[in-house]
Amino acid sequence: MMMLPAVGGRSPLFALSVSAGLVLVFIFGFMAWQSPPRMSFPHGSSHTDLSLANQKADVSISEVIRLLYQNMKTAPTEPFIREPNGSHIALPPNPRYKKTMGSDILILDLETRPLKSTDDFKKGNYDWRNINHVSGGIFNHYTYALVHGYDYKFVHAHEFEDRHATWIKPSALANHIKNYKFIVFLDADAAFRFLHVPIEWMLNYWDIKPHHSFVMAKDPWTAAEPQYNSDRFNRSLTNTGFMVVQNNENTMPILKAWHECPEDVRYANCSQWKQPKFHEQSAFGEYIRYDYEQYVKELDCGEANGYPGLEVNNCQGKFVRHYWFEKHLVKKDFHENIMNAITLPIQKIFAENIGGVIVQQEKNVIDA
Q1: How far apart are CA 51 and CA 30, in angstroms?
Q2: Which residues face 153 on adjacent strands?
Q3: Where is the signal peptide (predicted)?
């Protein structure tokens, strides 16, 4: 996502014009950097109309993101990925997912809240520095979908009258899973740590098999304080802030049982979780997973939950970070990912002296 200066009291049209102009600069700049024999345009045209009326923001930003990440993306079977500190995370042998699945994967956001940043944008007041963690997280998820060619949906759901808003998850997942091989859902305060690493690589790393309907990470838990983040058996709950849902024969029965759990038909006293923490998460942990144990892959907390600085269970978000507290750090993660993508081709210019930007001064004298 491009960082724009504050537009103050200027009109939304002015802000949109600036945005469109910067997008086009990126497109032409990165296409030139790639040095293709000929620039291609939609519908076979050999030229582009620069008028604002003929530009679509979603198409333009898709092209920008594609170009930014096309030389950074990790293949599903890449032997390892590199951490910022120089260490490596190695992929286990015999990966199952060898090709990218593209639009067979849906990245899903669910919200009952409107995006404040959208309201600001419509007023001509959008400023990256002022958006909250909700928009920051959603921008992360949407950008991730663009990088890898996945489908993306933002479902704006009505709230329940009798239960907490997070209960929208089971029905929304059920309504969309039939159209996809996988749905990847994240809470707004959760973020992909590496935008360039596809979900297929993670599925290989976690050894996700065809019978796994749900993939979730555990919450932090210690025997010293078993009353926190645990079910009635003192077993760590799985966190529903990040879920990979696979379309198989067991998925819909699980989602139906979960959605209907608060009605106390199949599970007596599940209605206790209509409002108290942790709502649908507690219901899943207390009841659902015990009936469908073999179809739920539980990851260690540190794999896809928590964030740096948390010591319990080393829960520091190796691949997906979930900022239950310190929610503002969602924006920081996104910012660092995007800046890495933008500055890499800039570094290439200096490393390879493209365009002769580096001039050797052999003698420190003033030429006559």
Answers
A1: 20
A2: 108
A3: none
pLDDT, tens digit, 9 for 90 and up, residues 43-84: 333 333 333 333 444 568 999 999 999 999 999 999 999 999
Residue 355 makes CB contacts below 8 A (sequence gap 6+) with: 349
Contact between 140 and 191 (Cβ < 8 Å): yes
**Are 202 and 194 in contact, with CB atoms under 8 Å apart?**
no
Strand-pairing partners, residue 156, are: 111
CA 144 vs CA 149, 269, 270: distances in Å: 8, 39, 35
Note the pLDDT tens digit of each residue in 111-126: 998 899 999 999 999 9
Q: What is the CATH number of domain 75-352?
A: 3.90.550.10
* Domain residue extents for the chain: 1-42+50-70, 75-352
Please list the alpha-helical segments (H only) found in the chain.
12-34, 57-69, 116-122, 133-148, 168-177, 199-205, 251-260, 279-283, 289-291, 301-304, 329-352
The pTM assigned to this predicted structure is 0.83
